[in-house]
Every structure is written in structure tokens, then in C-alpha cells.
Specification:
It is a single chain. The protein is of the alpha+beta class. It has two helices and eleven strands; from the N terminus they run βββββββββββαα. Strand 10 and strand 11 form a beta hairpin. The relative contact order is 0.23.
């Protein structure tokens, strides 16, 4: 496990309250409209019980494309936690890829974003914050996350996604067409 060796926000000496089993969730792969599930484990390494929380963050950089902010795709369960010394807790990260997401890399500018020396290529993060004592003092860690959206294996998938997203409008349109056709036929027979 990789110890939390640096803090996002801290006052006084650095204290590592937990360790995390992954430093990045980059280059996850999935299809439009699908959900990717990934687990992250935290282990309590401090001598006392700690509390903390998870959230997502987008690091905005001028001239970024819309592909860089995937924070709205991500949920972490549970969000808040309390961890005892020596205890391990597993958290589920879900990435729900929108049905209209085009193929390619989302959340980072290159597939090397998780590697050392490539911090400038990271845009979307899962943030872990751990209370360091009294007050609002936290240590934390930014875990970069990115997704390679794969081209749909079936050329009908985009059409099916469109139908699924607009099913009510499509059904109502067919009902109206059928009613208008029936009325038209009734008028012709009445002549």
C-alpha cells in the first residue's frame, strides 16, 4: 500500500492517517452508456480512529476541451467514513459513461497522465481527505482518473441509445400517426 506522504491542506507536521491501495484510476475502459466499477481500499495506519470523505474534482486549465471534466460521471460509495487503526475499508467508484460520449480519452490529455512527471496531463481527480485532528485540518490525496471510451462494437448501439433516451416521444409520435391515419381512412369511407 502506498502511504499518504503529502497533504492537500495541512497545518503543522504531516501525519499519515491512512494508506490507499491505488494511486490512480487512469485509462479505465468502457462503452458509451455503460458503468465501470472499481474498488479502492483504505487502511487505517494511525494510532487513533480517523474520519474523512471522498469527492471528485476537476482541475480546470485554459483551453481544455469538454472531455477533461468527467467529475459528474463519478460516484464513490460510501462518501464519508470512519476508519479505526488497522482496519481496512473498501470503497466502490462508479463511472457512468454517458450514452452520447464519443470514443477516445476523457479526463486527461494523455494516457500517461498517471505516470510520474505527467501531472500537467491530469484533469479529473478523486479526492480523499482525512481528518488530522481537532478542527478543519485535513491530509489528503488526489487520485487522477481517466476513461478511454471505446467505440461501440455494434453500429446500431448509437441508434438504440437514441431510441432509449427518446422512447416516450417516439411512442407518442407513432400513436398520433396511427390516430391520424385512422381518421383519414374513416373520412374517405364516409364519402
Amino acid at each position: 500500500m502506498v502511504s499518504l506522504l503529502f497533504g492537500l491542506l495541512f497545518i503543522g507536521p504531516m501525519v499519515s492517517a491512512t494508506s490507499v491501495d491505488q494511486m490512480a484510476l487512469t485509462n479505465l475502459e468502457g462503452y458509451p452508456g455503460k458503468t465501470i466499477k472499481q474498488e479502492i481500499s483504505l487502511e487505517g495506519t494511525d494510532a487513533e480512529e480517523k474520519s474523512g470523505f471522498w469527492y471528485t474534482r476537476y482541475k480546470e486549465v485554459e483551453n481544455d476541451s469538454e472531455r477533461m471534466d468527467i467529475s459528474s460521471w463519478i460516484t464513490i460509495e460510501p462518501t464519508d467514513y470512519t476508519i479505526k487503526p488497522g482496519e481496512t475499508k473498501v470503497f466502490t467508484v462508479e463511472v457512468k459513461i454517458p450514452g452520447n460520449a464519443g470514443p477516445g480519452l476523457w479526463g486527461a490529455t494523455s494516457e500517461e497522465a498517471a505516470q510520474e512527471g505527467h501531472a500537467n496531463e491530469r484533469r479529473t481527480y478523486i479526492v480523499f481527505k482525512d481528518a488530522m485532528g481537532e478542527g478543519n485540518v485535513y491530509s489528503g490525496l488526489l487520485l487522477p482518473i481517466s476513461v478511454n471510451v471505446l467505440p461501440s462494437p455494434n453500429p446500431l448501439v448509437p441508434v438504440l441509445n437514441f431510441i432509449q433516451q427518446n422512447i416516450m416521444i417516439i411512442v407518442l409520435s407513432f400513436v398520433i400517426i396511427i390516430l391520424l391515419t385512422m381518421l383519414s381512412l374513416k373520412k374517405r369511407r364516409g364519402r
